């Protein structure tokens, strides 16, 4: 499966089906992060039940230093 | 005490978290500043470097209120999107609306700022718009119901201090919500002046983060906020053209 994650086309292993699995794959499941799939914000409680599909545009953002 | 929406703070200094030399110095500086509100930006995560240190994970975030900004937004819609993302973290419901209208000066776009403020208030955010030092715009933002006004002292990161103290006074005098002077602060004297003018708080970042000794500067800013506020409450004497002697003119011993 190929998704556009943070603007980059990325090939994902076939077993990744949900947002929760995606975050685990990149080892960022314990980080403070916010996920958007096709411009919809996904709340944490829904990570396990939110499916991702080929061609999805996924944004994974976090807090960085700023004024 | 500083009251913003439903929240009460002891400290009147708000600190940005960008540009510090490293996380250890940043932690120490935040501590020394006494700030209870810390600003952050929202950016894409580098998913290929999960172990990269993140300041937010190194502090006890229950001790602070997070104030995410919408920096990077050029339209109201972009600002609203960033604010929603920040809120979805579950860590904050305040937002600093920052919609830049000019790349060179980084001055805020007044029209987009107003629009974003209105949209975010409707969604239930605690909204603190970063605005230019324009009293009419400040009034318009207040009428919308924003929870504080954050006029810029001078361009972001410029360290020029308060370019137009008169405009700041106009804003402060008519304010019905806290006025937090934001951006352009250079040193403790600027902070003290802001507070002496009657500002309710000061938000700064570069002046501390890029100082030779950020920890010492953080402490200096904390003291400047306190000194300025005390001075404001104490009531400054009016300026006069001519001298008035401090020592009595009677009872002089003359040889």
Automatic annotation (TrEMBL), chain A:
InterPro entries: Beta-grasp_dom_sf, Mopterin_synth/thiamin_S_b, Thi_S, ThiS/MoaD-like. SUPFAM superfamilies: MoaD/ThiS. Signal peptide: none annotated. It holds the Pfam family ThiS. PANTHER family: SULFUR CARRIER PROTEIN THIS. NCBIfam families: thiS. This is Thiamine biosynthesis protein ThiS. It comes from Anoxybacillus flavithermus. The lineage of its organism: Bacteria, Bacillati, Bacillota, Bacilli, Bacillales. The gene is thiS.
Automatic annotation (TrEMBL), chain B:
SUPFAM superfamilies: ThiG-like (SSF110399). Its EC number is 2.8.1.10. The gene is thiG. It catalyses: [ThiS sulfur-carrier protein]-C-terminal-Gly-aminoethanethioate + 2-iminoacetate + 1-deoxy-D-xylulose 5-phosphate = [ThiS sulfur-carrier protein]-C-terminal Gly-Gly + 2-[(2R,5Z)-2-carboxy-4-methylthiazol-5(2H)-ylidene]ethyl phosphate + 2 H2O + H(+). Homotetramer. Forms heterodimers with either ThiH or ThiS. The active site is at 96 (schiff-base intermediate with dxp). One of its GO terms (molecular function) is thiazole synthase activity. It is found in: Cytoplasm. This is Thiazole synthase. It is an enzyme of class 2 (transferase). Coiled coil: none annotated. GO terms for biological process: thiamine diphosphate biosynthetic process. Keywords: Cytoplasm, Schiff base, Thiamine biosynthesis, Transferase. The lineage of its organism: Bacteria, Bacillati, Bacillota, Bacilli, Bacillales. Catalyzes the rearrangement of 1-deoxy-D-xylulose 5-phosphate (DXP) to produce the thiazole phosphate moiety of thiamine. Sulfur is provided by the thiocarboxylate moiety of the carrier protein ThiS. In vitro, sulfur can be provided by H(2)S. Belongs to the ThiG family.
